[in-house]
Amino acid sequence: MASSETRPPRSIFLRHREDESALGEKSRRRALIYFICGNPGLIEFYEGFLAHLRQLVSASASMNGVEVDLYGRSLVGFDDEDHHPPFSAPDNVPLDLEGQICSVYENVAEVVSNEAKRTGGKGYGDVILMGHSVGAYIATEVTHRHLREEEREGWARHVRLRHGFLLFPTLTHIAASPSGRRMQLLRQVPLMDSYFHVLARGLLGVIPEAAVRWLVGRVVGVSRDGGMAAVLARWLKSRDGVWQAVHLGKSEMETIREEVWEERLWGMAEEGEEGGAPRFFILYGKEDHWVANHLRDEFIARRRKDGGETRIEVDEGDLPHAFCLKEEDYKQVAQTVLEWLEEIEDGRA
């Protein structure tokens, strides 16, 4: 529930440099990569990844024909300042997966509309949704809804969703994954399903933030003095952040089950277009604790049946699900994303 006491979720906007635009052709296309966080949905986790991707795109000769902006926003509810009253109030509750999907879709349309106004009509010709984990599910579902004829002709008709980049996606049967099974077992413990967030807040509330940062560094493997540990500690010590994460996680368990999308969603970006590129590009981890390998393989087999057009890669190394936490991991993922962008541009040549 919004009020004058709230502010929008935190966001990152990395624009194409104005000096590059001045040196380039005025008629160059413009594109937006809109990034959707995983759970916990704090955009600060992805600052390094997005900044490195920005550098790669700016330095790529293959991307000279398009001006690319990068935008990312925290999911709603993970920052205490983006909602009022607190979730403990009887008339306010955390957002479930459906609520996050609607919020993201509305924000995509808002960002595109605002940019068109800012530039006097020279807005984004293409929009790419890029999501991590449940953010990949959100990106897929937003694209699915946008492709419906009645919605494409409706309030978001000014948005041209062209591609989706899905990073370590949780697209089906998340409860069957190793971590999903553990979460489901935990929910069966008496009172745990309803009061885990209360227990977590009570425990974390008595631990000094410095100690939380130390614990985070030990468990996650990041420097306790670095920015990532500070972000994690701030979230863990927040009033409602853990509650929002748990609530969304339970909603994911209930919602992300059988595949619900029609096959046409996984085709080329535009039917009948010469050359062109796939609508979706997917990067899976070799061993992802939020993905059941056999169900991932079945999903891939369906996409590749009869010469399927979705671009799917399975990492052959040891990239973790939480790739954004360590520099060596997010740089590797950013390089993969750049290669997808270059493939799209090559398809236009």
From TrEMBL:
One of its GO terms (cellular component) is lipid droplet. One of its GO terms (biological process) is lipid storage. It is found in: Lipid droplet. Pfam families: LIDHydrolase. GO terms for molecular function: lipase activity. Keywords: Hydrolase, Lipid droplet. InterPro entries: AB_hydrolase_fold, LDAH. It comes from the Eukaryota. PANTHER family: LIPASE, LIPID DROPLET-ASSOCIATED HYDROLASE. Belongs to the AB hydrolase superfamily. LDAH family. This is Lipid droplet-associated hydrolase. It comes from Clonostachys chloroleuca.
